[in-house]
Design brief:
The complex is a heterodimer of chains A (114) and B (117). Chain A is mostly beta strands. Chain A is 0% helix and 49% strand. In chain A, strands 2, 4, 5, 6, 9, 10 and 11 form a seven-stranded mixed sheet that branches. In chain A, a hairpin with a 2-residue loop joins strand 5 and strand 6. Chain A is globular, with a radius of gyration of 13 Å. Chain B starts with a strand and ends with a strand. Classes of the chains: A mainly beta (114), B mainly beta (117). Chains A and B meet through strand 5, strand 9 and strand 10 of A and strand 6 and strand 11 of B.
């Protein structure tokens, strides 16, 4: 068990560019969550998957954001036409029913939009 | 909707001092409550949890009691160490129908704790 991994750890981009982040959950965890954390705040829920199905999306997830989890394994979060307000830490967590869906978090991807 | 409010920080203590970090919540149902900790340069880790009223969660000398009457889940430790310096987050999750399984988490804003030797 290597834990939840996220890539890249840091991303700097210019406003208007598209970016994509990847999350690899703990193997056999069927649930995967995305959160966003801005400086001085707690993480805010964005979306979650059970296997490959995206079951809930927050109102925070604008049309420029899209998340996928093909085959129910890794997940990607894409932000199109980035804005400076998208600068944040993007966190991924995974869980399984066997542990009452206790969430295990990855180290996060820090996005800076210039 | 659900919300969590933590005492404003940062909190600075000397080693072996008593720690309290206040947390109150608002929820429509009967949520499970959590404290997560984020050490410098690391990801969020679950510190302790409580799933029903009057439950006490404990781990690494930290304790928190689920108080339904005051909608609180205050974190305490009797004697802090320098290694406890971190950011602490209170969180809640509404249980899923039919069990104790948790869903998405709602977090407080976090409290920075610094412990000096």
């Amino acid at each position: 068990d290597t834990g939840v991994s996220q890539n890249p750890r840091h991303k700097i981009t210019k406003r208007g560019q598209n970016v994509t982040f990847r999350c690899d959950p703990i193997s056999e965890h069927n649930r995967l969550y995305w959160y966003r954390q801005t400086l001085g705040q707690g993480p805010e829920f964005l979306t979650y998957f059970q296997n490959e199905a995206q079951l809930e999306k927050s109102r925070l997830l604008s049309d420029r954001f899209s998340a996928e989890r093909p085959k129910g394994s890794f997940s990607t979060l894409e932000i199109q036409r980035t804005e400076q307000g998208d600068s944040a830490m993007y966190l991924c967590a995974s869980s399984s029913r066997r542990s009452d869906n206790e969430q295990f978090f990855g180290p996060g991807t820090r996005l800076t939009v210039l | 909707g659900d919300s969590v409010t933590q005492m404003e920080g940062p909190v600075t203590l000397s080693e072996e001092a008593f720690l309290t970090i206040n947390c109150t919540y608002t929820a429509t149902g009967y949520p499970s409550l959590f404290w997560y900790v984020q050490y410098p340069g690391e990801g969020l880790q679950l510190l302790l949890k409580a799933t029903k009223a009057d439950d006490k969660g404990s781990n690494k000398g930290f304790e928190a009691t689920y108080r339904k009457e005051t909608t609180s889940f205050h974190l305490e430790k009797g004697s802090v160490q320098v290694s406890d310096s971190a950011v602490y987050f209170c969180a809640l999750s509404d249980p899923e129908a039919g069990g104790t399984s948790y869903g998405k988490l709602t977090f407080g804003q976090g409290t920075i704790l610094t412990v000096h030797p």
